[in-house]
Design goal:
Elements: E1 14-23, E2 26-36, E3 41-46, H1 52-60, E4 67-72, E5 75-76, E6 84-87, H2 99-110, H3 114-123, H4 139-150, E7 157-161, H5 169-184, E8 188-192, H6 196-199, E9 205-210, E10 213-218, H7 220-227, E11 231-235, H8 238-242, H9 246-249, E12 257-259, H10 264-273, E13 280-283, H11 287-296, E14 304-305, E15 308-309, H12 311-332
Amino acid sequence: MNNNTSQADNAPMVSVEHAGLRFGDFDALQDINLEVYQGQTLALLGHNGAGKSSLIKLILGLIKPTSGQLTIRGSSVAGQSVNLGYLPEDVSFYDKLTGKEVLSYFAALKGIHPQRVQQLIGEFELEYAQHRQLKTYSKGMKQRLGVAQAILSNPDILLLDEPTVGLDPQASQFLYEKIESLKQQGCAVIVCTHELAIVEQHLDSALLLAGGRRVGFGSLDDLRQASGLKTQIKLANFAGLVQGDTYLQSLSHQQALWVGADERKAVVEYLVQQKNCTDFNVIEPSLAVMYHHFMQQQAPNVAAVNGELTMASKGWLQSLQSLFTSTARQSSL
């Protein structure tokens, strides 16, 4: 996370104001607002069909909003030359080209010096495979090549659609280390992902979409405040500290203290000063927990046709059920 970027000192790299996107009678996006600043990462989150891909297409300039506006560095996207990098969800290159040939091809299209190609091959640890055809590459190798292609021009804005899908933890960590390096150089990064636990460690802000609408936006602290979810405080000597203490008993549930954001500081001070307790663990609501909370608040527009759910409704429910199951497994560990 980048704590050095002052929003007051610069205009947002990407600004979306009351943007809507309509296809016939279908609203893909409704009244979307967001800002991404230089050197920051925005996580774009939502169920299948939430509108994430549509929003990415707006930012890429592939389609225009039917209402509202989108600006890059304070200017309209239309007709503006933007140094932008993009990694689609399904990276697809010509399998009979080598890794070096792929990067050289895109470098030629963008007017990038060949030296940059060799530099990225080294940075992404692909030297040993640079002369091999892509049909011999693993998923992780193709993904690294895809990210290298996306950052060839040292972009001011980088959009990544599911960059870690199908990757092992080591490969995922490698990609996010590269993203962090780009942020330090001032790049604004937008990541569309379902890997909440991974992106939580690297985001500066998150936009939560459901049914084409914004249901949450801000930093992790902003989202925690908006959700009203409580912080968990686990005590090493729970029974001994809580017994006979009506104040702590009022906060107790399932062998832990549960406190709101506005009372956490007071509770911690009480534990340290009044109970002489320093052996405790403060557990904030995770991004996954907050995501579930915001999504549960949204009633899906479930339309029945001959007793069956529409495809959009199925996508919503299946995505939410899958994420619930994943979090339940993590909670039981």
